[in-house]
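Q: Got a minute? One more chain.
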Amino acid sequence: MISPRFLLILTIVLAVVSCSAVLPSIAQEPYYIRQTINRGLPSNSITSILPSRSGLIWIATSQGLCTFDGSVVREVPRPRNADIRLALFLIQTSVEDSTGALWFGTTKGLVRYTPHEGAWQFFPPDTALPKEASSIITLLCDHQGTVWIATRGGLMRFDAKQTVV
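A: Always. Here it is, folded:
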């Protein structure tokens, strides 16, 4: 005679085995959306991606800057200043500071954009930054508002509040 305890254990084991065989077949495939020029990007060549606190994803391409809200890609209006416009085609890295300003490291210097004001500021090498800042590799913003700039010529500290290197 089979004991009730054995039947209970057998039932549990069979339930676990049958669930483990069924679960992989109902698991969902990974989901992705491919964003391209056909879906609003200015270019398929992406140079930097920055998720901001506002929920937007800032995407730098070889043909301009845009935002993505999870459904729609929107090109950011280009600034009037020709130097800034040129620099925005050459973005290599980006970071957001504690005030919500966005910083873009380019091959032509440093660009700051304040989204809530729509204001652009350009810090070119040899004027606002040392010559080595003409090739910015990456940026980091610390909790004090200092922007750290990694370049081929070394590490620089940019105090955004005082606009000094």
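A: The first strand starts at residue 46 and ends at 51.
Q: Perfect, thanks.
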